[in-house]
Amino acid sequence: MPLISQIYLFPIKSCSGCRVDSADLETRGFAGDRRYMLVDERGLFLSQRNHPRMALIRVKLTDGGYAVSSAGHATWRLPVATGSGDTRRVTVWRDEVDATVANAETNRWFSSVLGMPCQLVYMNNPHGRSVKSGYGRETDDLSFADGAPVLLISTESLDALNHRLDEPVEMLRFRPNLVVQAGAAFAEDSWRRIATGTASFDVEWPCTRCAVPTIDPATGEKDAGGEPLRTLNAFRKTAAGTTFGQNLIPRRLGRVRVGDSIEIVESQGL
User: Fold this and answer.
1) For the whole prediction, is pTM greater than 0.90?
2) Tell me, which fold does domain 3-267 have in CATH?
């Protein structure tokens, strides 16, 4: 039976992740995942796509919040949530949402790290955003994540990719929330509904990959040859784009733990 082997949270969109033993599922994804985001002076979200150095902003869980660090800068402390502060309209892809702005000292820290004026914002809006158009239900909720609340990838799928690469890559390049042992490469592509721990999900659509996996999370540098996307394009390209992993939408809220078995409630064609 498939099982959960790793769980990751990404508290600040496009910055490093935190590996955890368990996570609580909320309507917009796991608690603490992509609730913070960096924006430029226009309020437009910042991403590793254009700012690869964001990969080098390390985020670690601490009692009551996060410790954020980057080489050459003192460690900065963040609360789990920013409950008060100025509100501004920010843009993430095609969505505009109200978000709470962090204090001036925090914004100076991030601006210094990235070498450009920016602000850290927090999603206090109880309604969040809608999931990617054409998927899910009208009432489905979303954090600052790109299009879906949760991303799942199997270890076997990564093994199948690495078998084709001259230099293997680590799972964190693909920034999943749930890493699973599925029993076979790309088995997750056939799943439609799953349950694990006390939570359940609809497996909605394959994740089409952008350039972020070409950035080494350890160095913040892009691969000159465009790997691993170049190799993925050779055997995972579809009409929608090159896919790797599956986007999930929460259906039953609860807790998920490393080691939890996964029940395949519904598979494609059943």
Assistant:
1) yes
2) M1 Pyruvate Kinase; Domain 3 (2.40.33)
